[in-house]
Amino acid sequence: LCARPCLFHSSGTCTNGASCEFCHLQHLDPPAKMDKRQQERLVSLPRDRALQLALDSVRQKMLAIGARCWSAYSNLCETCGAPQSRGDPSRRALLRDERPVVKLMAAMNLRRLLI
Fold it and tell me: How far is CA 38 from CA 97, 103, 106, in A?
């Protein structure tokens, strides 16, 4: 879960090594962020639906990276009062207002989705 890339690591001048608070992995693109219009679109969705879309995106990201922390996902669903996703979320029918939100969530990194 990358916080931010280390600006010094790419130039080979990071002196913090393993204790560095920034990520030393290669980052090709900056993480996606919601703009004001997208935030308004998300807020306009019913709370339960917005929560389910976010949890589906978190689940897809965890599957993509091979995460082994499914108990954390279960706890997240339980804390939010949402049922755990079953099956492939990408196969669910999306409303017109939901498509841009889901597309943006797919481009966001896991850390940004969780905060």
Answer: 10, 11, 14
